Structures are given as structure tokens and as C-alpha cells.
Amino acid sequence: MLVTSLYSDMKFTLPSLILLVVVFISSCVSPRVLEDMKKKNERCDEENTSLREDNIELSTKNNELGAKLEDYNKILKALERDTTLLGSSLGKMTKNYDQINDLYELLLQKNKELLSGNQSQTTNLMSKLQETERDLQKREDEIRLMEKALNAKKSDLERTQMELKEREARVNELEQIINDKDEAVRALKDKVSAALRGFEDKGLKVEEKNGKVYVSLEAKLLFASGSIDVDSQGKDALLKLAKVLEESSDVNILVEGHTDVDKLSGGGAIKDNWDLSVLRATSVVKIIKENSTIDPNRITAAGRGEHAPVDAEDSDEAKKKNRRIEVILTPKLDELFKILEGN
Hints:
Layout: H1 2-7, H2 14-26, H3 31-114, H4 119-195, E1 204-209, E2 212-218, H5 219-222, H6 232-246, E3 251-258, H7 273-290, E4 299-303, H8 316-322, E5 324-331, H9 334-342
Parallel strand pairs: 3-4
Antiparallel strand pairs: 1-2, 2-5, 3-5
Helix pairs in contact: 2-3, 2-7, 3-4, 4-6, 6-7
């Protein structure tokens, strides 16, 4: 019952599941509890994978919107050039139409004057008059077609301008949300740094990268050698961190345990570095959870053993850096995903 209470609200990775299998088998835990733990571990992996895919999808869609915006600008410029050319052509056709119409009126007048004159001249004038009428009708038809084409271009231009404004609004909204999230991450880093001031020279480091805040605590600040129990100094640092995280409800919390490459010696429940990293991560999570009002759904515990070192050198200094707990704070991107789904 004690083991079940300690881990019922946590998410586990594959290594943590292996540990629990070993521990639970030795404690005669039921298969149903093992299956529950396995499902929680799978959900943790899926959420981590989903977050990486979401970040990639966000960058891709933002680039696509930028490319579409550039295409619409090119279409807009082409439509503006076509509209200018059509307007100029329409003006010339209208001027020609007025000249032909004046000529037509003049011919009508001459025709009246010559009705009493030579019949051949009258026939010639009538022929010219009919030809002029046909030409005039042709020009009128051309003008109507030009006006129709111009109106169509104007409609296309207005529609394109409207679509362009909508796209610009979406891009601006996306950029604003991203900027807000970046500002929130910077503000969160400042809050965490201020809350943990005084621990920097004891193996604690706070930094911002990839849109997240990383709080790295060396193992010596939290645990005795080979232990999974947080000491008083480490608990003090975690309580200060939990106080900040209580006020940041839109941030997800991932606690990762890391070890060096040295193999563990001796028996007991902790068989290897995977076991040690997972159990240390869960110890940190339990302290944060039990001493704050943070929603457990926001917290994930994971162990990575010696497989994610910050320093690959085989030296005592490198090993000291690699033995650590990393608390990774990731802002939720619900608003951004809603806009992308709307597009």
C-alpha cells in the first residue's frame, strides 16, 4: 500500500517500469498494478513525443504561412499592374469611341446634305456610313469586354487584398502569441532564479533554451552518495522552487534524474543507474507535490541514467556535472494550437 501511494500519481519511462517490475515482483504486487504503471509510462513517452512533434509542426506551419504571405504579395502586385494596364486601355478605347461617334454624326449630316445630289456619291457615303456603324459597334463590343475584364480584375484584387489581410492578421496573431510565450518563459526564468538565489555556488544552475526553462541541480545538493532520499538542504531548494511553480499554472513540469557512468555496487532494490535516476526523480516529485498545491497532472518524473550526459569526458569533474536532477519547465501552447487548428 505504501509503494502504490508513492507512485500512483506519477508518469514513468521504460527504465522506471523495469525498476517497478523488479520491486513489485519482490513485494508480490498484483499484475494489475504493474499494468497500470506500464500504461502511465507509455503516456509519458507519448506526451514527450507529442511535444517534440508539436514544436516541429509549429515551426513548419509558421514557415508555410510566411511563404503564402509572400506569394499573396506577388499576386497583389501582378493584379495592380494588370488593373493599371486595363484602365489605360479603357481610356484609349473610350477616346476612340468618342472620335468615331463624332465622325458618325458628321456623316449623317453630310448624308442629309447630299440626298438631293449625285446618286453615286450618296451610295458611297451610305457604304462608308454602314462601315462606320459596324466599326463603331465593334469598338463598343470591345469596350464592354474590356470593362468586364477590368471589373473581374478589380474583384480579384479586392478578394486577394482581403485574403492577404486575413493572412497577415493570422501571422501577426501567431507571432504575438509566440512572443508572449517567450516573454513568459523569460519571466519564469527570472522568478526561479530569484527564488533560488543563494544556491548557485552549491551546484544549482537556471537557464533558458529551446523555449523552456531548465533548473539543473547537482546530486550533491540533494542526495548523499548512492541515496534516493533528499537531504534538508536540497529540500529547502525544492520548496522554494515549488512556491514559484504554484503561481505558474500554465507550465508543465518534467523532473529528470541523471547519473554518471560508474556502475553501482552492492545489492538491494537499486540495481543500476537507471533505477537510481528514476527513484531520485520520483523523490523530488514527491517533495514538490506534497508541499504545494500544484496539480499532479502537470508533473512528470523520468530517469535517464547515464545516457544524457552534459559532459562526455571521463573525469571526476565531468562525472560530478552528470550526476544531477533537471527540472524542465515547458509553457503550455493551447492558444497557439487552437489558431493552427483553425487554419
